[in-house]
Amino acid sequence: MSFVPHEFAIGGVFMPPLLIAWFLGLIAAVYTSRLLNKHNLSRHFFYTPLVFVSFNVIYTIIFSLFVVPG
Amino acid sequence: MTTETVEAEASQTWQLSRRAKEAIKVSLALVIAYYVALYFSWMKPYWVCFAIAMINLPSKGESIRKGLYRIAGTIPGCISALVIFAIAPQERWLFIFLACCWIGLTGFLFLQDKKHAYIWQVAGFVCFVILLTGSAGSDHIFYAAMYRTLETITGVAIYTLVMVFIWPQSHSGTTKQLYVDLIDHQQQFFQSAIHPSNDNATDSLALYDQQVTLLTELEHSIDIETVEDVNVFSNRHLLHRLHKLSSKLTNAIDRLSVAVEKLHHDDLDQVLPSFDAQSKAIIQQFESLKSVSDSPIQSCNTAEKIQINLQQFKQLDHSERAAVLLLRTDMAEVQQLLNDIIEHINLLLIPASDQQHKPEEPRAPFIEFVPDIDTLKMVFAVMCYVFISFCFWIYFDPPGHMGWIQMAGSIGLVMASMPQLRVTLAAIVVMIAFIPPMLINVFVMPSMSMFAEIAALIFVYSFLLSYFLSYILRILSFIGMFQMLNIQNLQAYNFAATLNAYLYLVLVLLFLFGLSYAHSASRPEKILPSILKRFYRSATWLLVERFTDATRSSRTQSLLSWFHRYEVESLPNKMIPWAQAIDHKLFTRTTNEQLQQLIRLLQSQSRRMQQLTDYIDCSDLNSFNQAMRDELGHWQQQLADDYQQLRSGNYQICIDDKRVEAIHARVDDLCNKYGQSVLEREWECFFQLFGCYLNLTKTNRQVITQLNQIDWQELAEERFS
Question: What is the Cβ-side half-sphere exposure of residue B274, based on CA atoms within 13 angstroms?
Fold first, then answer.
């Protein structure tokens, strides 16, 4: 994939790359939170909703840097 | 095999199920609605269909009632939209302020007025539908309001005609049947109350729960049959009064069961010689009520208190004496309520126009306006959702544009009524439900040109939705169908617009899910302890604090008293949906049964508390001597200390037999010291309070035992929800 930032087109609908990166980041954050729940590690956090948002932001940045050209 | 047998078997084989008939009725109504709307070229034809989809309920009474409520809500919604638009056509902040005020007002009424909740819900979201319906010309908005009202009325009328003439399903007779079931349960409850067994505690809680469920269904059934049957309509006040009396009867039998538990049956026969006879007479009255014939029921039992055998009474210990005094009062109350119920039933047998003597409505006590804290919080939350969505629209302009405000208002009201609703689940359902109509819009509809083809498509698709899906899923799927198919006269196909609409719906639901964290909607395990704290806060105030501050004005005292009483009465019921929403896969050491048992015990504790406060309020405490008042104060302080500990989360309180024995010893001293100098009437009053206090202490012990079985530490731990 070319790493020049460009929009994604589906049937004439143009979506910004950050939206795709955010969506992938959301899926990754959900998966990470489920893993943490499963291994009972989430109890060490102070406020899990904020942690979830942080995971989402971190994964979005990672995906936009290395996967989705954003 | 005879011809008649073959024909009978054939008719049995080919009969459509109830579900299929209802699905056909809805589908037919939708086709007719689309035909009418397209024929007259009305704005947004799917508005007619929305009305039909929303009022589609099992019986004609329910559907007609909901249809009338929808019309009654649409009119003020349209008027408010026109007013807001007229006041603030060009001032955005004034516009959103007025819109938030309107959604706040309708949201408050929606949550407070349970009977007419649907009217206020419709008034709330219709205002936003009109305000945000398209181009902002003043003539356009007026036409939008007018068409919305017209199309709603048309939808209701079409569905009413289809429902009344094609396979009508009536609710007739359900009220009578429910009432007979209720009487049957009350009789069983009474019989288990006067003959307690070892499993009585669990059984009586379960029986009480069943009666509460039946009472709720009965009230609902009365409201539905009022619309269907003119006789029920003319007797509706009597029926509602009958419902209230039945509710009081359930509570009276509940108090009776607690009083009887303490007494041995032999003692009971000796102390209250006519107890057996009166119990049998009451059971006989229950049997008469169950038979429900057309002839009046005789009610010859007077509601006087049973005479006490004083000689035997003096041989009982103090707690037994207290139980006997409470039992007399409760039996008299049960008898009086049964007499009132029989009087009402006898009146119902007379046609409404011939009813000359109507029982007097007792004057309701003056009830101060009691603000429900949770209602006010949710109303504020909905107003914030609308405001934040408005800001999101004007600063970011996401897909869906001004539709974000409309959805924030509509879905916000639903979230306010069910704060424990998992919005992520709704988002997933929407994502799945909206895909088929989107695909139909893209691949099937462009090849259609005649109404007959579209009619067939609408009929088949709506039949499948109505037949296979439950009510909530059906509503969501219908919304998807109308939004995605978007059938109108000037039909145009634009995949970008369709996908845009799909994306916007999913994004707005996820947005609202994020906002719902502000009131911990997704963390029900954190809500339960806070409700418990509030419950014990109010309990402490009712038992002790309201007597301590003499500087408070009587008005303030009265308001606070009503507020705390309301909290004590309503908070255990509020815990039920939160307890059910806890995900036990994340919290494995606490089961749903433990939480439900805790809630039942809290409800019982609430009833005992109310009984004690009622007796305190009714007693003339000034007639007690100082020693008796001090003893009463001592009990109240002990209760308040226990509740303070429970409020702070310390459930390791020990209410052992030593405490109860110490109280018995002190009451012994009081009787020995003041036995002759205090009037009998005052001793009776004192012992009734003593009995209420002992009942409450026993229930407190049960609640504390149950609280200690639940792992609160695990519930306090953080989990990703």
Answer: 14
Its pTM stands at 0.87
All residues of chain B having their beta carbon less than 8 Å from the beta carbon of residue A44 are 718
Residues whose CB falls within 8 Å of the CB of residue A13, separated by 6 or more in sequence, listed in order: B495, B496, B499, B500
The three state secondary structure string of B160-228 is HHHHHHCCCCCCCCHHHHHHHHHHHHHHHHHHHHHCCCCCHHHHHHHHHHHHHHHHHHHHHHHHHHHHH
Q: Are B638 and B659 in contact (CB under 8 A)?
A: yes
**Segment-wise mean pLDDT, segments of 10 residues, chain B, 721 residues:** 53 76 94 94 91 89 92 96 92 94 95 91 94 76 93 95 88 86 91 73 77 91 88 86 92 85 72 85 88 66 72 80 84 89 84 62 57 90 93 87 88 87 79 89 88 93 93 89 86 82 84 79 86 93 76 77 90 92 89 92 92 82 76 85 88 78 83 73 82 88 91 89 78
Orientation of helix B373-396 relative to helix B403-417, angle to 10°: 160
Query: Which tokens is B546 given?
Result: 């309201």
Which of B431, B584, B720, B721 to probe the A interface (max A CBs under 10 A)? Answer: B720
Residue of B nearest to A30 (CA): B720
Residues of B in contact with A12 (CB under 8 A): 495-496
- B668's tokens: 């012994």
Contacts of B499 in chain A (CB under 8 A): 10-11, 13
CA B351/CA B543 separation, integer angstroms: 48
Q: Which residues of chain B does A33 touch, with a Cβ-Cβ cutoff of 8 Å? A: 720
In the chain, the amino acid numbered B649 is G
Task: List residues of B whose CB lies inside 8 A of any A CB.
Answer: 495-496, 499-500, 517, 522-523, 586, 717-721
User: What is the residue-wise DSSP string for B588-605?
Assistant: TTS-HHHHHHHHHHHHHH
What's chain B's length in residues?
721
Residue B97 dihedral angles phi and psi, to the nearest 5°: -65, -45
**How far apart are the C-alpha atoms of B272 and B467, rounded to whole Å?**
60
Residue in B496, B499, B718 nearest the CB of A43: B718
Question: Which element (helix H / strand E) includes B578?
Answer: helix B554-581
Cβ <8 Å between B499 and A45: no
Instruction: Find, among B321, B282, B300, B292, the residue nearest to B189 by Cα.
Output: B282
Q: Which residue in chain B has the smallest CA separation from A49?
A: B720
Which amino acid belongs to residue B321? R
| CB B211, CB B186: distance < 8 Å | yes
